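[Solved] Which block belongs to which protein?

Original post:
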Amino acid sequence: MSDHHHEHDHAYMHAHGIAHEHGHVHENQKAVVNRLARAIGHLEKVKRMVEEGYDCSDVLIQLAAVRSALENTGKVILQDHMRHCMVDAVAAGDTDAIEDLCQAIEKFMK
């Protein structure tokens, strides 16, 4: 199997959400997992604040911080996807992957 054929298969699998072994490691995978773990921990704290009757303004401020952390994590994922997965898709002429990315961006940025 040529490398070009492998790239097309990889891009196709990404475009169609098919679970697969990656030919490359996502550069920021560990950073993304760490960011998500911190956001989950922060969200748990916000939940406890609500349970303990904290001031609504304080809860909203902390909730905004969690939302910001998630949006920043999404940016890291998007950048990683553009630099790696989309490079493979473009090289393989996979326009479906590009359209899928556009739809994902639309949902992410609502």
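(Second protein starts here: sequence line, then its structure tokens.)
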Amino acid sequence: MSGRLILVWGGSGSGKSAWAERMLLSEAAAVPDSRAAYLATMEGSSPEAAARIERHRAMRSRHGAETGRAFVTVEQTVDIGGAAVLPGDFVLLEDLGNLLANEIWSPAGAGPGGAEGRIISGIRALADRAALLVVVSNDIFTDGGGYDRDTAAYIRTLGELHRRLAPMAERVVEVVCGIPLG
């Protein structure tokens, strides 16, 4: 990997996305003529998903206005290694959990047996092109158990992705109540 990688994770509503956006835009602003790319992975297949996508668009716009730097949105719900990311881009991947679900269950995805490998190779490919790749992910590991087999496998695979990405990252940041730890 020639570019830098930062893994940002936290619970739902923790402020992880807002923190990651501001940090990435700040880093990009320090490099003249660089591009901040928001790699959007969520499929808008339900009213709830569409509302969440719209909330994230508004947040990106607000953070861009604060920094004088706008994101270019790149939508890629599977096979992120093929995303339209340019050499030297500052890339925010939002988010690993959505990407994993898409790779497992979407028709264009790699399926349960291939999702983890495709995601890791995709992140490596992005990091090779990007000046900085920030991967945002969720903490879904502390709410108990009793899940069906497919959900339990999804949770295990997301945990394995975190375990594999952490040593590749220059920094792993947990965000709690908007406060970055790490």
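Accepted answer:
You had them paired correctly. Confirming on the second one: The helical segments are 16-29, 47-67, 96-105, 115-129, 149-165.
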